[in-house]
Design goal:
Chain lengths: 278, 547
C-alpha cells in the first residue's frame, strides 16, 4: 500500500509528457486486457462491405475483407502488445544477463559469447529470422523465442559495453577483493548502475520488435491471419491508400502513439535515475 | 613574498573586483556560491587564492575574465580591468581581452591541449587570431618563452605533440601559451596539483621566473598553502564563497588572524610518534616480488618489505614508481612472476580467486577515490552491512547493530543509514569506506592514496581517525602515498620506491635523516615548506651541487 502511495506521489510530480505517455500506455493495456468486452464484433467476423468509410455502426469503417476496423484494432492491441512485450522481456533477460556476466568474467567466456553474437549479427536479422522460422514453423511461441533471441544479441552488446565501464570502478574491485561471487557482482554492483541505460533501450527495443514482428507478419511468417495484429493490418490495408481511404492510418497511428508514449515514460524515468546518481 | 621584488611605491592597479556575487543553478533555483568578494591586483604582484573545494576560488578566478561557467552567472558586483567594466560587457568586447590581456592556465594541461595538434600550432592560435603576430613571429616568441620556462630543446619542443612531452613540460608549455600575447594578468588554476612533487618544483620555478621577467600580475589558485607561500605577495583565504582573511603572505603564514587559516597551516605540521620496532613475526611479508603487466616489461623488481601489527608502513614514490602495482600484487589483482607474499607466515596464492574467504577477510583495502569506491546505488547501511553479512552472516538484527556501532566508530551516526553516496561529502564517503573495511574485522588495511582526493583539513581528520583506529584495534597499515606530509603524519616505517625498485627502506626517522639515497634526497627536498624562501633556497643548493 505504502509503495502504491509512493508511486502515486512520484507520478504526481512528473512532467506533462510523462503523464500523457503513461495515460496512453495504461489505456492501451486496459484495452488489451478487456478486448472481448469492448469489441463490438468478433475478431475475424466479416460484417459489411470492403473498405467502408467511418459511419453507421462502424466507427472506423471496415478493412479489406469487410471486418469492423475498431474491433480489429482492439483485438490487435491485445495480440501485438502482448507478443511484443513478452518478446522484449525475454530478449532483455537473456541479453542483459549474458552481457553483464561476459563483461565481469572476461577471459574465454567473454570471447566465446561475443564471437557467437558477432556471427549472429553478421546476418541481416530479417533474413535470419525468415530462415529459422521457415524451418521451425510459425506458431506464436516459436515466433516469440526466435525474435527474442535474435534481439538479445543487440541487448548483449549494449549490456556488455555498459558493464565494461562499470566493472573497472573501485567499488567492483572492492567486491572482488571481498571474495564475492560473479553472480553477486553482476546482480548487486553492476546491474543497478547499468539499469537506466538498459531501461531506455527497453523502450526503443520494444518499438523495434513491434515493427519487426509486423514485417514478419507481412511476409507470412509472423502472426498468422485471421489473428488481428496492428503491423499486419497496416500491410493488409496498405492498398487503400491508392483510393484515398484512411483505413491503414488507424493501426499505424496506434503503433506510433504507443511507441512514442512508451519513450516519453522511459525518458522521464531516465531523467529521474540520473538525478539519483548525480 | 620574495625579498628581491617589491611592488613599486605607486603601483599600477590592473584589476579591481568589488562586491562580486556569483550564483549557480541547483535544482532549478539560483543559489549563491560566491557571496560578495572584493579583491584587487597591481602590476608585478601575485595574489594567492586559497581554500578547500567548493570555496569558490576557481569561480572567482574565471570571473576575473568576466566569465561564468555553464550554469553560473555573475549576479552582482563590479569587475574593473584597467577602467573597463567586465561584468556587463558584451561578449565581443570580452573576446578582445580573454586569452589576450587576461590569460588562464588550467589545472590539467593534459586535458586542455588538443592531442591532435602540435604544441606550436596551439601556441600560435591566439596571437594569430588577434592578428598580433605572423606565424614566424609566433614561432620565435614561443622559442623565447620555452627558453625562459626552462623547457629542454626550446627550438624543437614546439613541434612535438602533447603526448610526446612529460606532464611537467606540458604544464609549462601551457604557461607559455598563456604568455603568448604578453598578457597583463595570468590566472593559474591549481597548475601543479596534478603533478608529482619532483615535477611541481620545476613548474613553480618557471612560473615564478616568468612573472618576474614579464612584470605582469597573476592570480594563483591552489588548496596548498605551502605552494602559494612560494609565489604570492598577498594571500586571500576563501571559504564557502566568502573571504576569511586577506593579507601579506608573510603575515598570513606567520601570524594568521583567523582560526580557519591557522587550522590550514597546522595541517602539514602534524607528526606521528614512531612506535618502537617489534621483534615478532610480521603480519605481511613481501619477498623479492617481480611483476609486470601483460606483454609489458616488469614494473616491479625484487621488492621486499614487511608490515607489523599495530604499525604503519608508508610506500612512497612519484607516479610510475610502482607503488600502486605493489598493492595490486598483494591483493591478487596482478599476479607476480617471481617472489612470494606471506601473510602471518603463510604463503598466499598469487591469484585472487585461489585465496580463501577467511584470508581475504583479514586484509581490507581503502581506495584513493571515495567517489568511485562506493556503489552510487547502495545505501550506506548496505555498503557497510555487506561485508558483515558476507563474512559472518549473524542475522539481520546483529548486522544492524554492528553497522550502527561502526558508524559511531567513524564519527558518523544513524542518520546516515539510509543515505546514498551522492548525499555524502567526500570526507564522509571516505569514512564509509573505512567503516566498510573495518566491518570485516581485518588485521591489515591497505590504504591507496586515501587522502589525495580530499581537502587538507578533511584529509587530516581522516588520518587522525585511521590512527585512532589503529591504536584501538592493533591493525597493521600499508599506506601508499606520494605525499611526504602524510608520511610524517602517519608512518612508522617508510619504503621509498623509484622505477619499480625499493631504493630505501627502514624506520621513518632513519629514512628521513641524512645520508639519503639520491632519489630520497630529491623527493624530500622537493616537498614545499611553508617558508616563503624555501623555493629559492632549494634551487640554490641544487645549483651548488651541480656546479
Amino acid at each position: 500500500m505504502k509503495t502504491m502511495l509512493n508511486m502515486f506521489n512520484t507520478f504526481k510530480t512528473s512532467p506533462l509528457s510523462a503523464k500523457i505517455g503513461l495515460a496512453v500506455v495504461i489505456f492501451g493495456l486496459s484495452v488489451a486486457l478487456l478486448a472481448p468486452m469492448l469489441a463490438p464484433y468478433g475478431e475475424s467476423e466479416i460484417v459489411a462491405d470492403v473498405w467502408l468509410s467511418p459511419g453507421d455502426g462502424h466507427l472506423l469503417g471496415t478493412d479489406q475483407l469487410g471486418r469492423d476496423m475498431l474491433t480489429r484494432l482492439i483485438y490487435g492491441a491485445r495480440n501485438s502488445i502482448t507478443i511484443a512485450f513478452i518478446t522484449t522481456l525475454i530478449a532483455f533477460f537473456v541479453g542483459a544477463f549474458l552481457g553483464l556476466t561476459a563483461a565481469v568474467t572476461g577471459g574465454w567466456l567473454d570471447n566465446l559469447l561475443a564471437r557467437i553474437v558477432d556471427i549472429f549479427m553478421a546476418f541481416p536479422t530479417l533474413i535470419l529470422a525468415l530462415m529459422i522460422l521457415s524451418v521451425l514453423g510459425t506458431s506464436i511461441p516459436v515466433l516469440i523465442v526466435v525474435v527474442a533471441l535474435l534481439d538479445a544479441t543487440r541487448v548483449f552488446r549494449l549490456a556488455r559495453a555498459l558493464a565494461m565501464d562499470i566493472a573497472i570502478m573501485e567499488y567492483v574491485d572492492a567486491a572482488r577483493l571481498r571474495g564475492e561471487k560473479t553472480f553477486y557482482i553482476v546482480r548487486r554492483e553492476i546491474l543497478p548502475n547499468a539499469l537506466p541505460a538498459l531501461i531506455a533501450e527497453f523502450g526503443l527495443r520494444f518499438c523495434f520488435i513491434f515493427l519487426f514482428i509486423s514485417s514478419l507478419s507481412f511476409l507470412g511468417l509472423g502472426i498468422q491471419p485471421p489473428t488481428a495484429d496492428w503491423g499486419s493490418m497496416v500491410r493488409e490495408n496498405s492498398g487503400a491508400i491508392n483510393f484515398g481511404i484512411l483505413t491503414p492510418i488507424y493501426p499505424a497511428g496506434a503503433i506510433a502513439a504507443l511507441t512514442v508514449s512508451i519513450n516519453m515514460v522511459v525518458d522521464w524515468f531516465l531523467h529521474r535515475s540520473a538525478q539519483i546518481r548525480a | 613574498m620574495t625579498p628581491d621584488i617589491k611592488p613599486e611605491i605607486k603601483p599600477e592597479r590592473l584589476l579591481t573586483i568589488t562586491g562580486l556575487e556569483i550564483e549557480g543553478r541547483q535544482d532549478g533555483k539560483w543559489k549563491k556560491v560566491v557571496k560578495g568578494v572584493d579583491l584587487h591586483l597591481n602590476r608585478g604582484e601575485v595574489l594567492g587564492l586559497i581554500g578547500e573545494s567548493g570555496a569558490g576560488k576557481s569561480t572567482i578566478g574565471l570571473a576575473a575574465m568576466g566569465y561564468a561557467r555553464e550554469g553560473c552567472r555573475l549576479s552582482a558586483g563590479n569587475i574593473n580591468y584597467l577602467g573597463k567594466e567586465l561584468r556587463q560587457a558584451p561578449e565581443s568586447e570580452l573576446e578582445q581581452i580573454r586569452g589576450y590581456k587576461i590569460a588562464y592556465v588550467a589545472q590539467s594541461a593534459a586535458a586542455s591541449f588538443n592531442p591532435s595538434h602540435k604544441l606550436i600550432t596551439q601556441f600560435a592560435e591566439t596571437p594569430l587570431a588577434h592578428k598580433m603576430m605572423t606565424m614566424e613571429q609566433a614561432k620565435a616568441k614561443a622559442e623565447d618563452l620555452y627558453t625562459k620556462l626552462f623547457l629542454p630543446d626550446p627550438a624543437g619542443i614546439g613541434f612535438r605533440y602533447p603526448h610526446q612531452v612529460s606532464g611537467g613540460q606540458l604544464q609549462r608549455a601551457m604557461v607559455a601559451m598563456a604568455m603568448a600575447c604578453d598578457p597583463d594578468i595570468i590566472i593559474f588554476d591549481e597548475p601543479t596539483t596534478a603533478l608529482d612533487v619532483t615535477t611541481q618544483i620545476e613548474v613553480l620555478t618557471a612560473i615564478k621566473e616568468v612573472v618576474r621577467k614579464f612584470n605582469c600580475a597573476a592570480i594563483y589558485i591552489t588548496h596548498d598553502l605551502a605552494v602559494v607561500a612560494q609565489l604570492s605577495h598577498r594571500i586571500m583565504v576563501l571559504r564557502h564563497g566568502l573571504c576569511v582573511e586577506e593579507g601579506q603572505a608573510a603575515q598570513i603564514l606567520d601570524a594568521p588572524k583567523e582560526k580557519y587559516t591557522a587550522d590550514l597551516l597546522a595541517v602539514r605540521r602534524q607528526v606521528k610518534d614512531v612506535a618502537p620496532p617489534k621483534q615478532e613475526e610480521p603480519l605481511l611479508r613481501v619477498e623479492n616480488i617481480t611483476a609486470g603487466y601483460k606483454n609489458g616489461p616488469a614494473v616491479l623488481h625484487n621488492v621486499s618489505f614487511e608490515v607489523f601489527r599495530g604499525r604503519t608502513v608508508a610506500v612512497v614514490g612519484e607516479s610510475g614508481s610502482g607503488k600502486t602495482s605493489v598493492a595490486r600484487v598483494i591483493t591478487g589483482f596482478l599476479p607476480q612472476t617471481e617472489g612470494m607474499v606471506y601473510f602471518d607466515g603463510i604463503e598466499m596464492s598469487p591469484l585472487l580467486k585461489h585465496r580463501d574467504k577467511d584470508r581475504l577477510r583479514k586484509w581490507q583495502m581503502i581506495f584513493q577515490m571515495p567517489d568511485v569506491a562506493v556503489n552510487p546505488r547502495h545505501k550506506v547501511k548496505d555498503i557497510i552491512g555487506r561485508p558483515i553479512r558476507f563474512y559472518y552472516n549473524p542475522g539481520k538484527k546483529e548486522i544492524d547493530r554492528r553497522v550502527s556501532e561502526l558508524l559511531e566508530m567513524i564519527e558518523l551516526n544513524d542518520k546516515y543509514l539510509d543515505r546514498y553516496p551522492s548525499e555524502l561529502s567526500g570526507g564522509e564517503k571516505q569514512r564509509v569506506c573505512i567503516a566498510r573495511a573495518l566491518a570485516a574485522q581485518p588485521e591489515l588495511i591497505i590504504c591507496d592514496e586515501v587522502t589525495s582526493a580530499l581537502d587538507q583539513l578533511v584529509a587530516e581528520e581522516i588520518l587522525k581517525l585511521l590512527q585512532r583506529l589503529q591504536q584501538d584495534l592493533n591493525m597493521g597499515y600499508l599506506f601508499i602515498t606520494h605525499d611526504l606530509a602524510t608520511v610524517r603524519a602517519i608512518a612508522d616505517d617508510v619504503v621509498v620506491m623509484y622505477q619499480g625498485r625499493v631504493v630505501e627502506h627502514g624506520p621513518r626517522d632513519d629514512v628521513f635523516t641524512p645520508p639519503h639515497h639520491d632519489y630520497t634526497e630529491l623527493l624530500l627536498s622537493s616537498v614545499p615548506e611553508m617558508d616563503p624562501n624555501w623555493l629559492d633556497r632549494v634551487l640554490e643548493t641544487r645549483q651548488k651541487k651541480t656546479a
